[in-house]
Each structure stands twice: as C-alpha cells, then as structure tokens.
C-alpha cells in the first residue's frame, strides 16, 4: 500500500505514438506507488536536444546512415521529458527519507541496478536502461512516477524552474568538464556550440576557475551570450581562417575541446586545434563520423572521449556546486506544458537562443 493519500482520477501525458509524429494529450489512471516508488506532480520540465532526437527516432551516423532508436529499445508511445523538478504527492510503503510536499530534482538516467556498471554507480551507462523520458514516461506530463527515493535530490536555494536543467544539460556539461581536468592557468578550453549546454559549460568552467575559454558558434546572438557568460573570445566557425584564429587566441595551447554540436565538421575542427596531449570530448549528437589520421592521434597523444549525461553522484555534486555559485542563471523561456510539441519543434529548428522550460499548471 502507498503512504499518505492516494490521488484519484486521471492525469494527462503529452506523448507521440510514432517517431516524428504529433504530440497528443492522453489520459491515464493515476498511478499508485508501491514499495520504493515515489509519485510527484511535475512542476517544471526542461526541453532538451535529446528530446528532439528521440522524437525523430534516430541518430545520424554519416553518409546517409541512421541509428534507429526503435531498434535500440525505445517503445512507442513515448512521453518525453528528463529534466524534471516535481513535488512529492505520494509514495510506497518502503520510502522513508522523503515527505509529501517536498520539491525535488529527479535523476532520470536510471539503469537496471544490478549489473557491474550500475554497481559502480554509472547507471547512465547501463545496457538495460530505464531512463525517464526515454524508456519510461517522463516529465511532459502532469505527474511522474520515480522508482526509488535515491533518485530525488533537494534543490537547496535554487530557482526550481532553472534547476530542472541540472538533470541533463547541467549534468552533461559538468561530467564532460570533469573529464578534461585539471586545466592549468595558461591552457585554453574551446567550447563548440553555445546553445543551452554550451552556455552552461562556459559558466561552469569560469566558476570552476578555468577562465581561458574560447567559444565557437554560427549564431552572433549566441556568441554574445557566450562572452557575457565568461568566454574570453568568440568566433564564427564559418570564417575560413577559424583554425588559425582559435590557435592564435589560445597561444597554441588549447588543451581541450568540448563539442556540443557533434557533426563531421565540428569534430574535424576540434581535433585540428588541439595541442599535444589534448582531449576532445564529444557531447553533441547531430551525427556523422570521425575521420582522423591515426599517426596524428598517436604522435600528438590526443584523447577522444565520448561523454553521455552523468552519474547520480555527479548530479549531487552539481547541485551542491550550483548552490554555491550562480550557475543556472541563463536565458530561459517558460511555456505551459500544453505547448510541449511547439517547444520541441522550435528547438529542432534552432529558434531557441537559450532553453525552454515547460511549466505544469
């Protein structure tokens, strides 16, 4: 039996029943949490580029090839939304550490909990994932069921709307940045793609004491935002001398590239500007393939690192970090939950300079 009161009636999830299809409001019976489960009313849910890819149903692999997400275990219909802040309304009989009325940030990258990867605390890399908003219903919904209280984190003094971004955008950048540290004072970090993730990355780098940041983006508006976030330089990658400009600005000492776009062109550029011993961290999923001379990889001792979201432990670190700094104060647009479909469309079309956050009620 669940603890406290049980909500009666129905609730609405905004879901699509075919990849690339329309979103529809669908009524469901209110779930009854049992065991370690916790039911939360969704307060805020960020709209992430991963939502765009899942809605499309594929990742581009280059040369016209696609990775079909349906074949990777994503079952239709899908209720997107993995950047969720919600309020606890009910819980199963085994839950002891949370109370009705508490507002929590939800860790969505849930694994099987049993394999060696999960036992290492890397549930985000589990090969049998149950990620909320991907494999299980997410936050484009009035209510969300979370399988265990350990996936709930208190917000502290954070703005709850902006704090929702920490579950994916913030966590993804935080985990990627940890992979390039330590960065010494004279070294430079290049951030490719200055949308929501890139902006958070620049702020996190600067607040971590890494002040030599070079931003690269095709949008003049986003380059200006990048500079206001702390980037020392901002360049347009369409400039035919972009590699020379970045190398000169960084004094030939670019130790790391964080690529939040992830296509053939950005990877070729990023690998080309790294110094010896540099690290290229691929985060964006726009698609393509890597072509890089193996002798360069070896003689320059370059590391190519894929970075996918982050661990539960890293999210806890990030929330503490965000409470000490003004991290999530980035441009956001609040839209009602009912506009989930247009939000995903606008993000896909590149019409969002910062981030969209959906508000329920």
From TrEMBL:
Domain annotation Enoyl reductase (ER): ranges: 20-358
Enzyme class: oxidoreductase
Enzyme Commission code(s) on record: 1.1.1.1
A Gene Ontology cellular-component term: cytoplasm
Molecular function as annotated in GO: alcohol dehydrogenase (NAD+) activity; zinc ion binding
Swiss-Prot/TrEMBL cofactor(s): Zn(2+)
SUPFAM superfamilies referenced in this protein's UniProt entry, alphabetically: GroES-like (SSF50129), NAD(P)-binding Rossmann-fold domains (SSF51735)
UniProt cross-references to InterPro entries, sorted A to Z: ADH-like_C, ADH-like_N, ADH_Zn_CS, ER, GroES-like_sf, NAD(P)-bd_dom_sf
Protein name: alcohol dehydrogenase
Source organism of the structure: Marinobacter profundi
